[in-house]
Amino acid sequence: MSDMNLVLFALLVLGGLGLIFGAVLAFAARVFAVEVDPREEAIVGCLPGANCGGCGFPGCAGYAAAVVKGEAPVNRCAAGGAAVADQIAEIMGVTADAAVRMVAQVHCTGCGVDHQKYEYIGVHDCVAAARLPGGGPLGCDYGCLGMGSCEKVCPFDAIHVINGVAKVDEDKCKACNQCVDICPRHIIALEPYKTKKHVTIPCSSHDKGPAVTKVCSNGCIGCSLCAKSCPKEAITMVNNLAVIDYDKCIGCGICAQKCPRKLITVDGKVPEPKPAAPKAAPAAKPAAEAPKAEAKPETTETKE
Description:
This protein is α+β, with helices and mostly antiparallel strands and 304 residues long.
């Protein structure tokens, strides 16, 4: 057999094997096919495809499957927002309830970055630094390490380290939970924006006041003035730290005015202290009445 015939024979054999295997795979695919609800594919087409996991399911396909099975609400996609929720609701034939907007908040102001236990030389990553003795070089055991692990995992470019502390861009944040999960200090949390003005306490320290002041210039000292001043009892003290109950908070900002450390923020800013109301002038005392003349007793004349 010539070389050319050997080549042709090999091609024919490979081609035949390819046809046989293709037929077997096609048959298996038809026999073992899993039917997919067409609504699931339609929902996947509506989703932004970020696969961020903010919905609590493994990617957009996982969320779509959960919606079709009735295991997830139609408004769970944080990245898509209300527009995507309306589209999914139309596919499912239901009404999309208005979802409460959630935004990540870093519970640290970064005012303790100048207090370091030691000089850190190593991988510029919070997770790596937190494995060292003392949980990292920062003096405060509850503060932001500022090495950007959260920044690296955010798929929406919504968090950046600025002056040694992570800051969230609220307009970009989609509440995907990636920064919350990666933070080794567990100081990032999703907060509901229910009120017209959002109040937050950006501190995570559970140390007592004297210990806090040694490592941070405005950390919570557990004085409880904010809790005492709240008209709705929305703030409680939990292990020396003030914590807000957002089911009760009305966003009045009175707690921020009372905080002696200027820690509590309203819409991301520490409010200016309100000037004290001027004291009312004391009321003038009424003039003393002039003494009345004593009435002379009446005398009656008697006839003799």
